[in-house]
Amino acid sequence: MKLTYLLPLLLLTAPVFAQQKADSAKNIATVKNDYSDDWANLRHYEAENKTLPAPAPGEKRVVFLGSSIFEFWKTRMPEYFEAHKNYIDRGISGQIAPQLLIRFQQDVISLKPKAVIILAGSNDIAGTTGHVTNERILDNIKSMVELCRVHSIKPILCAYLPINEYPWRKGLQPAEKIISLNKAITAYAAKNKLILLDYYTPLVDDKKGTRAELTTDGVHPNAAGYKIMAKVTDKAIAKALNK
């Protein structure tokens, strides 16, 4: 008799439990991951790094560490990296020097390169995430160089590209700040006998910005600009690897 009453009750409640389970699963699926702790955006290349094979015997891998200048290079002159399979681009648009330092373990050291090109400073100067001094920018670069020494990686430091104005920060007058930063990086490289990759000199115009025919917005190179950068980059890499 009890079973007779129990079966209809189970039939009535089963859909309710099923719906509750479905709603619970739906809520779990719609919860977004909180990446606020990943300030340096380590997840940007995390998956790609896992699929990257270790360097082949005799391979002289070079990592390009920087922000949008390097990230855009892959799309505006893709043939450059296609022709140099040992060149690994790890640029992330908008990043400042301390973010590059945080990424150094994952996006440089773990990839086991022979050399790394460190292009840092412009977004710091632009005040993208706050105002800092050349000393602070250089401190982050120094820390990356020290990591290179521990892991037998050849650091290649860069004199930054000339910038007369940031389209998103008009009136900032960055030209002299870029020159000042480049002087500090050049002096540090000379004192420590490091390779300096000069992106400034072959691109600059008479207004201390990048020549109009070589840039899309006064900050980022176009294909013609990247072709010039490619030439001086290859020379600096060759010098570093043969040093």
From TrEMBL:
Keyword Signal: yes
Annotated SGNH hydrolase-type esterase domain residues: 70-228
Signal peptide: 1-18
Residue stretches spanning the membrane: none
Sorted UniProt keywords: Signal
SUPFAM superfamilies found in the cross-reference section: SGNH hydrolase (SSF52266)
Protein name (database record): GDSL-type esterase/lipase family protein
Organism expressing this protein natively: Mucilaginibacter lutimaris
Upper taxonomic lineage: Bacteria, Pseudomonadati, Bacteroidota, Sphingobacteriia, Sphingobacteriales
